[in-house]
Amino acid sequence: MHHCLNFAVEREGTAGCVLIRAAEPLAGLAPGAATGPGRLCRALAIDTALSGRHLFDADRALYLREGRPARRIGVTTRVGIRQAADWPLRFFDADSAAVSFHRAPATYSLATARS
Question: Which of 6, 20, 80, 105 would staple 76 via disulfide (CB 3.0–4.6 Å)?
Fold first, then answer.
């Protein structure tokens, strides 16, 4: 099996997380090296040593920083599950080449999403 990158998005004791399935390749990563949860973790050397870390602590090996928002957000059903498989809970940058499309996505422009 492989590691997966999940972000806990609720307070401690409340279930809620986001699975990160892919990332735009930066310098040093081959195209496709970070597509899919397993390849993403291998490409970024992510393992359980990062479990429980705060995502906005820039002193850590892996952290989040503010970036440019996606112009269009795609929404589809989730990938590789059986339960609640028809729920539209997969969100992604609709213009990203790193995203694998398994179904025709509904897309929302940033202007539409903010109005």
Answer: 105
